[in-house]
Please model this.
Amino acid sequence: MLKEAEIRTFIEGATNYFETSAQQSATVGSPYLVTDGNPGAYEYTGIIGISGSRKGVVYFTAPRGMLTVLLMRMQETDTSDENIKDLVGEVANTISGNARRDFGKNFVISVPVIVAHEVDKVTAPHSRSYVIPINWRTHSAKLVVCLE
Amino acid sequence: MDDGGKPTLKLMIVDDSNIIRRRIERSQQIARLEVVGAASNGREAVELFRRTQPDVVTMDLTMPEMDGVECVQQLVSINSNVLILVVSALADKATAVDAIEKGANGFLCKPFTDRQLNDALEELLSGS
Model:
């Protein structure tokens, strides 16, 4: 179960990522709780396993269009599938790693696991997940936080 | 030598993300730094370090095969004069302190702007 302040940590991590990396703000919709174990996914998902003081996953999922523009905003000219997958993992890794500022060193994060083009393979380990909708330019993405 | 008369320093970039490796190479504007190689994990970094003998290293922490903290220790044991800037998303103070204690010389938190990267590298080099 996540506390309100803990959800705020992930919201700040997501907005800070876009503000700093893309130099363009993202807006965040109202976080909502999903209880059926299926928070949903877009075409590319970067999944971070969480262990230590908390257990579960944090994942960032986005469509190719958003990730392509984000790469371009970062002055990256190679928008190949490999780099798109790399980026979605890096976003997930950065937001999860930044959360240690509040969760502490025992919030242990894994290297990213990437799921691309297989939306059905993205599932949460527990029935309850918080979904943070992210809007950037004309694109929508989600940050999903599923922690015991 | 660069225009300022200071010796050119060799830079190695270590990060498991290709786009971050490319971004650091592209964004660093320090005239006296010359990129001599990039590695995607700690094990690869140690091999490349022995081969290219860089003066400066940017080091990610969360990587497969060998993590950044262990890699910092190994690089420092090979050359205690190497300057290491940790570039990591792990934002807690304990991690930064741990990396510094193991031999790193600076810490830059991801995400970063080009200016933040260059400021951190300038600060790292200011003592060299």
